[in-house]
Specification:
With 375 residues, the protein is mostly helical. 73% of the residues lie in helices and 0% in strands. It contains 18 helices and no strands.
Length: 375
């Protein structure tokens, strides 16, 4: 039984699993620190990801499944504090353009799907849900409902997410202007000079975030652990409530937890059972990046938006990973989060009608239904 197995364990087995998880987490944190010392972008997350992936590939897997939701709750609370009434008004004016970008980003899945049908041999429907940048969990749910292969979609979406997390931070450093207007507005709006909150206030704030996350889960909100606390924090900030300033170490801890959780997916079976699908996923991520980067630069120029925030907002990555990248790089978090919130809403409501329309218009890739992915 691996340390990450959720099955019941005896007392000694639980202690052993806890020790293994603690060891991997400590090593991952050390890897993040090393990446930080080397000056790598998004260092704590990427460093933890590589260390965790190495442990996992050789059979040592940390059980961080229960930690990830709590990390997302704290991250959501922290990100929501970036929204002020002034920033909300500025973003509202860009909402039509952000909505168009959401449709364009999801539509790129039709191009990426052709890679999956050509290389991995998946059917057209599965290829679409593998390539559309809508998030691992969201796309897996829709794939199951649409009759596509859920395991293949989870594998492809995870590989794409990891590729984007590794590519975008380095690429962003070449595009982000040093004096972007919206980034300055965000920095000035943040209560940097406020007194540090007491442990009691931090605890109560985190507890409130956990409660609304549980409510969001019951209401079937996508990614409730991050989204519901973030919305709560946005409402408090928008109405002028004094936010609880979370310590900077919180962001670091969240990066390590997210990095380890991504790395724990890289088991030997996960990587080797469908190597053609892995190759297709990596190439699809590169194709989507090559498409979305110039498109994001054009949108930023035409809409007068911050370049770095638009790049991350239109990136084919997940909301937690892209927003924490924005926060660590000093990019306008509210704008990045707005792009992803709109994309999640469109994807949750319209991704299956988009696929149906693409089929009716003949845009869907041809399928090789007699071929299956390598196992």
């Amino acid at each position: 039984m691996s340390p990450a197995d959720p099955a019941a364990r005896s007392g000694p087995q639980r202690l052993k699993a806890l020790a293994v998880s603690a060891t991997v987490l400590a090593a991952a944190a050390l890897g993040g620190w090393g990446a930080h010392r080397l000056g790598l972008p998004l260092a704590w997350l990427t460093g933890a990801l590589f260390v965790s992936a190495a442990f996992t590939f050789f059979g040592v897997r940390a059980g961080v499944g229960r930690l990830r939701p709590y990390g997302l709750v704290v991250l959501g609370l922290s990100l929501g504090q970036s929204f002020t009434p002034e920033i909300l008004r500025a973003i509202a004016g860009s909402l039509p353009l952000i909505t168009v970008c959401g449709f364009l980003t999801l539509g790129t899945g039709l191009l990426g799907a052709r890679i999956f049908t050509a290389i991995a041999g998946t059917d057209a429907k599965t290829a679409f849900f593998c390539s559309v940048p809508g998030g691992v969990v969201l796309m897996a749910v829709h794939a199951q409902r649409a009759g596509a292969s859920e395991p293949q979609v989870v594998l492809a979406q995870t590989i794409r997410l990891i590729a984007v997390v590794l590519i975008y931070p380095t690429m962003i450093t070449f595009f982000v202007p040093h004096h972007a207007e919206l980034s300055r507005a965000v920095a000035e709006a943040m209560p940097a000079s406020a007194e540090p909150a007491t442990l009691l206030r931090i605890g109560l704030y985190a507890a409130a975030g956990l409660v609304v996350a549980r409510i969001g889960q019951r209401l079937y909100i996508p990614n409730p652990w991050m989204l519901a606390p973030c919305l709560m924090s946005i409402c408090l900030s928008a109405f002028g409530a004094q936010p609880v300033v979370l310590p900077h170490v919180v962001v670091t801890v969240c990066q390590v937890i997210l990095g380890v959780s991504l790395g724990t997916q890289m088991t030997q079976d996960f990587v080797m059972r469908a190597h053609r699908l892995v190759i297709a996923s990596g190439l699809s991520a590169l194709l989507l990046t090559l498409i979305m980067v110039p498109l994001a630069l054009l949108v930023a120029r035409l809409g007068g938006l911050d370049i770095g925030a638009t790049l991350l907002g239109m990136a084919p990555g997940g909301m937690p990973e892209m927003t924490i990248t924005a926060q660590s790089l000093g990019i306008a978090v509210p704008l990045v989060l707005s792009f992803h919130l709109v994309r999640i809403l469109i994807g949750n409501l319209l991704i299956e009608p988009i696929w149906w329309l693409a089929c009716r218009l003949g845009w869907a890739p041809s399928a090789r239904r007699d071929a299956g992915p390598d196992r």
